Amino acid sequence: MGSVDAAQGAAGAPPVEPRPAKDDLSPVYEPKTRPYRRYVSTYALASVAFSLLWGAVLTVLLPLQVQNLEFARIFGPDSGVDLTALNNLSGQVASGAVTPSAEQQQQLDLLAQFNSSRAAGLSLVTSVGVVVGMVLSPIIGTLSDLTRTKWGRRTPYIAAGAVVGAAGITLMPLAPNLFFLVLAWSVIQVAGNAQGPLVATVADRVPKERLGSVSAVTGVVVYFAAILGAVVAGALFAAIGLASYYPFAVTLLLLTVPLLFLARDRSSKHLPRGKIRIGTIFASFIVALRDRDYRWAWISKVLLWTGFGIGTTYSIYMLQSYITPALSAAEAAQMSPLLQVVALPATMLGMAGSGKLSDKLHRRKPFVIAAAVIIALGFIVPWVWPSLPAMFIQAAMGGLGLGVFLVVDQALFIDLLPDPEAAGRDLGMSSVGQNLGNAIAPVTAGTAVALVGGSYGIVWPIAFIIVIISGLLVLPIRRAR
Questions:
Q1: What is each CA distance from 476 to 298, 404, 415, 435, in whole angstroms?
Q2: Residues 442, 128: contact at Cβ < 8 Å?
Q3: What is the pLDDT of residues 86-120, one digit of tens each?
Q4: Burial of 331 (0-12, 13-18, 19+ CB in 10 A)
Q5: pLDDT tens column, 137-176
Q6: What is the DSSP letter of 243?
Q7: DSSP letter string over 275-300?
């Protein structure tokens, strides 16, 4: 029994469940074999299913839906206010080129209120959903470790996630206000936690020396899917509005099926049956964090996703209310995905190069630090140059840094697993790090924007500082180089 287990027993935590023999678990595939290739391809497809959704909803559909709800609430549903013209007027007033009339000043005051309220509204919806996911992720991971069915340990959660996620997507366009929008998005976040057991299949089935390479291959596909989802959503929104949600519900179901049937998990019914104790469930939040190295990596991950989220949460609003000249909502809906398209080549380069090189050098920390520095420097560009070209430069630099990080981060956490036989639990806790960062980011950004009267420029220096700190926090890790 490892040191973590001993510490757990000494602390009076619930006893560790009996470990199944290694031969009883799903097989670790031999590289370059047909089963290995089939697994990697179907795993990538299942990962793509939710990535398409995240790209479409978080980049385009959700911000615009929140904006529509808040615009109607503040200006009135039939106000006839031209938001683009009002944003351009705000820029002219701020530069001293125009002195507003009393009527224009009243509209500008409403604009400042609107800018703060839509930022706060988007922060509320995304943060509540992420917190739901953060709480459930290690719980679902622990349950998958202990599940005994003829379909295996991970499959029931992956299948249920696709079905529940599709149901949640169909509810999104029906939300009449932020309260119902929060509920629908929370349902989707619950479903998204099926990705914890999905990622655990990598630890179950992929040889250790191939972890970085598999993460790179699937990471490239997944990132491309998020961009594709955003581009498709932008085009669909111009044509069918919020009905754009529905095609993504169908896609989520279709792309999950191949993994369930073509790369089946072994039955787990014959494995030792441990009781699912409440104490064991709650212990899933703290067991991995007792490990010193895992804890440093986790805190670093929280901060990186916090900083990255602060700098990217309001991209579609930045295009309408920060850069000069301002874009319309329709233009921003189509331009925002293009920021990610521009980032794609750099991201693919970062993913492909970092995965293989990290495996070859047996090093993870230098790549995490480099990723943080690249992302942070990208935030400086639009801070000093509030323009559309600066937004594209920032997106490309952020894409390169994130590409490096996504690949090496997953490999780093698998390297640092305190208990390899509880991979679902501990990788679920790793997902909590990303979820926590994603929850903190919009709240921090929204608060900052509100404090400065609706101006979005404040997010860039805050994001820069947090991301730099995140890179430095991997230095104390000892079990990874």
A1: 12, 20, 15, 23
A2: no
A3: 888 888 887 788 888 888 888 888 888 888 889 88
A4: middle
A5: 767 777 777 777 777 778 788 888 889 999 999 999 999 8
A6: G
A7: ---HHHHHHTTTTGGGSHHHHHHHHH
Contact yes or no for 328/84 (Cβ under 8 A): yes
Q: Of 474, 369, 459, which is closest to residue 415 (Cα–Cα)?
A: 474
Tell me the per-residue pLDDT of 407-449, one tens digit each, with 9 for 90 and over.
Answer: 888 778 888 877 776 666 677 678 778 878 888 898 899 889 8
Cα gap 89→101, rounded to integer Å: 11
Spatial neighbors of 115 by CB under 8 A, at least 6 apart, are 317, 321, 449, 454, 455, 456
Query: How many whole angstroms separate alpha carbon 249 and alpha carbon 291?
Result: 39
Cα torsion 161, 351, 131, 72: sign? negative
Residue with tokens 């498709």: 232
User: How long a stretch of residues is the chain?
Assistant: 481
CA-wise closest residue to 134 among 432, 452, 357: 432
CA dist 281 and 139 (Å) reads 6
Residue 181 amino acid letter: L
Measured from the Cβ of residue 346, the count of other Cβ atoms closer than 10 Å reads: 20
Q: Can you tell me which residue has the tokens 């693919």? A: 348
Cβ neighbours of residue 10 closer than 8 Å, sequence gap 6 or more: none
Token pair recorded at residue 360: 């070859």
In this prediction, residue 24 carries a pLDDT of 47
Closest CA to 415 of 305, 335, 296: 296
Residue type, 343: A
Cα 55–Cα 61–Cα 65 angle in degrees, nearest 5: 150
Cα separation, 193 vs 396, in Å, equals: 29
How far from each other are the two terminal CA atoms of the chain, in whole angstroms?
25
Kindly calculate the radius of gyration of the chain based on its CA atoms and give it in whole angstroms: 23
Per-residue pLDDT, 233: 92
Q: Which two tokens stand for residue 447?
A: 């608060």
Q: How far apart are CA 94 and CA 112, in angstroms?
A: 12
Q: What pLDDT was estimated at residue 286?
A: 75
Look up residue 157 and give its two tokens: 């959660």
Q: Would the pTM count as exceeding 0.90?
A: no
Average confidence (pLDDT) over 277-289: 67
pLDDT at 39 (0 to 100): 81
- Neighbouring residues of 264: CB distance < 8 A, sequence distance ≥ 6: 151, 152, 155
